[in-house]
Amino acid sequence: MGERDDHGGQGVYLYAVTGDLGEDGRREGLTGILGAPVQVIGHRGLLAHVSRVPLDRFGEEPLRRHLEDLDWIEGVARAHHHVVETLAEAVPTAPVRLVTVYSGEEQVRGLLDRRHADFAAVLARVAGRREWGVKAYVKPDAAALEPGGGPTGGSAAGAAGAAADSPGTAYLRRRKASLRSRQDLWRAAAERAERLHAALETVAVAARRHRPQDPRLSGRTDWMVLNGAYLVDAGREEEFAAVPASFREEGIDVEITGPWAPYSFTELPAETHGDVPPEASP
Amino acid sequence: MTVESGRGAALAAEGRLPAERVALVDLLDRLLAGGVVVAGDLVLSIADIDLVRISLRALIASVREADVVGPELGYEEREHEPYG
Question: What is the pLDDT of residues B38-52, one digit of tens each?
């Protein structure tokens, strides 16, 4: 908390970087975190989209406390997203990681200067493309469809063996069978998810897998077998959206989200010449 | 601390979250694992973002403790999933 610059306890929150395409890059009336107006800092053909944030709320110490509060994170995340989304709808946009705060405009200009080529490369990569999310689930209770023989007289075939067992043995047998079938079900589902991901990759320009979402945060107790992000050419979106159909018939629940700003595809190229096309899939 | 357990209990009690939250989860995937990461001259270092993840994980863990009905098998298998 050493230096307090000339903004009197204000920091500069950076949302995204775009190319400077003239008036197009500036969104009139766009507001960000805490309702502050979004401003642009231009440098060498790039625009940094920023707003002022009070350091008594976005300094390191207050932030540490706030990070314990999901509601606070949600507020910041939605405000950040609103700015990024508004920009990305209009122009190629490189979103910046949540909560990136500089002490002043000079530092932001320094960033645009230092990483100019990298930002230009990211913007070129995402131009004319959008990110789509694909989430795939299977129902774990599908394994319970085969409960190992009910108490009623229907299961004649299994009744011979089961009749000899004590109730306890029969229970353990059923439980074991049920566990095994859950495991089989999981493996089969994971394998289908791999094929789905591979099929989506062939249409996408780039793909990335996020961690499976926790059921407590997603509200879904089904097994999440795929949480993918795909960067897709504007001209191939229909083709992309058609990929899951055959997998749905196999019993996977596939959800598509988006379009998103290209959040998942903004890794700055390494300092070496990173001109390898991303099409090589494993 | 108390915030976590309070929120955790609320989540556990709700069981299912409103649609608004579902979208938040998709958003957090992207905002916490995506976006350009920059360094240098920052008031806030990007390393702080890891705190968010840790914090949320702790929160989720506290929810799990309060409610052990979860599909243990599913979690286990998921841990072994190869994510690049």
Answer: 765 566 544 444 444
C-alpha closest to that of A25 among A81, A92, A82, A79? A92
CA distance A251 to chain B (A): 17
Upper half-sphere CA count for residue A24 (Cβ side, 13 Å) = 13
Q: Looking at beta carbons, which residues of chain A come within 8 Å of B46?
A: 97, 100
Q: Which two tokens stand for residue A53?
A: 């944030």
Q: Is the ipTM of this complex over 0.85?
A: no
Nearest to A70 among B46, B59, B73 (CB): B59
3-state secondary structure of A61: helix
Helix (H) or strand (E) segment spanning residue A159: helix A156-164
CA A44, CA A77: separation in Å to the nearest integer? 29
B31:A98 CB<8 A: yes
Q: Please name the residue that has the structure tokens 């993918």.
A: A228
Q: Does A88 lie in the same domain as A134?
A: no
Domain of residue A139 covers 130-265
Q: Testing the interface with B: which of A49, A60, A68 to mutate, by most B Cβ within 10 A?
A: A68
Number of domain units in chain A:
2
Sign of CA dihedral A161, A165, A167, A170: negative
> DSSP H helical segments within A67-155, as ranges?
70-90, 105-114, 116-126
A100 touches chain B (CB under 8 A): yes
Are A121 and A202 part of one and the same domain? Answer: no
Where does the pLDDT of residue B24 fall: very low under 50, low under 70, confident under 90, or very high at 90 and above? confident
Are A74 and A52 in contact, with CB atoms under 8 Å apart? Answer: no
Give the C-alpha separation, B17 to A146, whole Å.
30
**Are A2 and A69 a contacting pair, CB within 8 Å?**
no
- CA dist B58 and A107 (Å) reads 34
B59: tokens are 């929160």
Q: What is the pLDDT of residue B17?
A: 38
